[in-house]
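In this section we walk through a basic example: taking a raw amino acid sequence and producing a predicted 3D structure, encoded as discrete structure tokens. The instruction is simple. Fold the sequence below.
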Amino acid sequence: MTSWIWWLLALLVVSACPGSQAEDMHDHMQHNMHVPADPGVQHDGHSMHHDHSMEHESGSTSPLIVLIFNGLRYDLPDVYKSRGVNLSSFETLLKQGVRASKMRSVNPTDSMPNYWSMLTGLYPESHCIPFDSFLDSDRPGVVFHKTNLTSLSDAAWFYKGFPEPLWLANQRQGGKSLLLLPGKALLFGGSSGSPQQIGTSSNPAAQVQLLIDLMAKPGTHGKISFALMYFTEPGDTARAHGPVSKEVGEKLVELDGHLGRLLSGLRQLGMLDSVNLVVMADHGMAAVDSSKVLELNSLLPADWFEHRLNLPPGAQAQLWPKAGHQPADLINRLAKSKTELSVWDVTHLPSELRLSGCRRRLPPVYARANPPWLLRLSAGAPLPLGVSGYSADTEDMRPLWVARGPDFKAAGAVVDLPLESVDFYPLACQLLGLQPKPNNGSLARISPLLTRYIGGEGFLATFAGVLLLFSFFGAILIVTAVITSRQPVKTIYAACMKRNCMLVSEPLVERVAEVSHGEVPAIKLAERRVDPFRQVAMTTHCHWLRCFWHRPKRRGSVVACLSGLCALTMYWLGWGPFAPCQPSLSITEQLQDANQTVVYSVTADHPFVFIGGMPRSGTTLMRTILDAHSAVRCGVETRVVPRLLQLLTRWETEKLESQRLRAAGILGRPLEAATAAFIMQILMRNGPPSRRLCAKDPYIMAHSRLLGRLFPSAKFILMLRDGRAFVHSAISRKIRITGFDLNRPMDCLARWNAQVSVMYRQCQELGSRCLAVRYEDLVLDPPLWVGRVSEFLGLPSEPAMLSPWLEVGRQVRLSDTERSSDQVRQPLYLASLAAWARGMSPEFALAAPRLAPMLEGLGYDTERLPPRYGRPNPAYWRNASYY
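The resulting token sequence is shown next.
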């Protein structure tokens, strides 16, 4: 009877597929966002992806203590242990906790960028603290340096809208935070927002004791839920003596004592197993080879550049060209050392540096030595013996990362996965029960460190899977019973003669007797009626099944074991209830092409490409470039998709409309699935079949967040253009745009600012799925940007993409309804870039930075007319100029 109850319960539970799984799929798709930002661009809480899987389940109240060591390379505890140095506390922590062996710092691998990236979850391009020392073009002559207390206390460096660090997030959401820095202990709590200084000691031992005392007796300060302590060692000593040296070994013993004092104090309080403790470093440290040094004064003439920051020798250099020279002059000269040196113009930084959104705090030329080389200004400067600043992919730059506590894996677990330091922020929010701000981290990526995987299927889905397998196994038994009950009677007789079975059906005994000519020596007739399963057992050849059904107590254990094995198998393979419940939307079309009927299918997981931006911003140019690729088809502009998305957004947001649709049962996933199917039909029929479908509509990027949800594998290209050039182009060509009064240029610029802000913010939320391309950069250096776009889309670059006007009528289809069609039929020309400056009034030029802060935020020159957008690629443009 119990078996039948389990079977029925399984069917009832499994019939209701958890609706949240499909939403979880969308929430966990984002990884490693590329989020350009600038001090002039304020983040308002919706500027980046918000992963709902990070929302904490109520119930976890364990405090979080974080120790950050400067320059503690991932392998130094093991190195010094092998040398006989006693680091018992680090060894205990490594044995009892979980270790991330491939944690990756952010570029540049300096202390300040990584410190802020860990505590905000943002790359340096978003929090805009790019180096340990830097200048800001808005504050000429003022230097930020990590050891300068004036810099650290100057609020001007932390601009309005600066990302909220973890301790303030904890305070804002009702918790109390303790920040222990060298020479300062700050308590954050309450509604006032102002920190309370409760200590001034620079002695780490005293600060550790203060932390223990506050954990033991909260007193008037209240219970602390988050504590952060920063150590300047062993990094300072490693720079002076090398990462593997006697001095660093002694310093590690000292740090080991501080760690041991904290562990011992928590153990005495009975809190060691109820506190989550994270010990990590900001970056690693590499040893210096004094024979591999590049001297800038030997590589560049002294009158070509300035080294304004007067930084000590290291892995990086920030250079400013002197009057009469351009960044390209320095770069071309330094390129002779390309095997030892990487050098970039900051207007063309590679995306992996994560610095391009912070140009006002970057030098015109950024150089970074390749390990093990070192940079210094001249031969007289003394060399350090340890250095950071190399690429974050360098093994010696990997930081130590280890944690223990009730929410972390234990017993010396090692997670050998590529993790990033920005992942710590969503992890800390999860542990503290905080609602995270938009960030670049990934909780799903770092959750293998935890005892419970975050982001997988819920308990209900797992429970339903187990019950489903019970029913599956029961069905197999029934099928077996049906098959075996139809076996010939001779076979039954032979089996019974061999095993001396008991037959329990009187008609069956009579039939066997007939077959055996009345001889039934080993068969006995049961005096009572038994269940049919026993009869099934007697009619099979399998001895285990016969014994199985003869012993009812053994049935449940065997079913449980087999079902458990099946459940584990299905879990690892992702079958059945362990796969997403939402089926993938698929559209199949029959298209007539060249007197042939072509049948092809496209699913919602197709890697669509969506191109958008403001009108007159290069969207048509970009789509012709992609149309020239043999594997991509964009087709002409339809204006259908953005209007449909606008309608869907209105249905979902307007109260009356949403109530009506909800009552009809179609709000949410049904309506979105129908919208996705409609869009897929439009894209499929807008031209011949292709391996990669693309759609270009200027205002499509105003709905990119929604599109990203409908099409999880889609990628987006946001075209940007100087807002002043946009206004001039719209007015001069009489382009009618809804909401824009062409008789009021200043009002048009303000509206441009508002609409571009929305598109740019949604592009940021999409992270690595969205690429922002400035029209001016594309025109100045087509080979570079065509290559970047191809790489972003995962496509090989093709020569035809550099001359799409030659493909018009073949690969590229144009429509006379698109106002830019006449321009993309011709080769690119530079004169259009700054032509607008001659047709605008001085009043408009002066008011532009105030009316459109996004100009500066996107890196446009607002101080000179005509503006400087950068240098044209001399190989492509043959030294032509647009000024």
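Looking at the output, two observations stand out. The chain has a mean pLDDT of 77. The two ends are 89 Å apart (CA to CA). In the next section we compare this with other chains.
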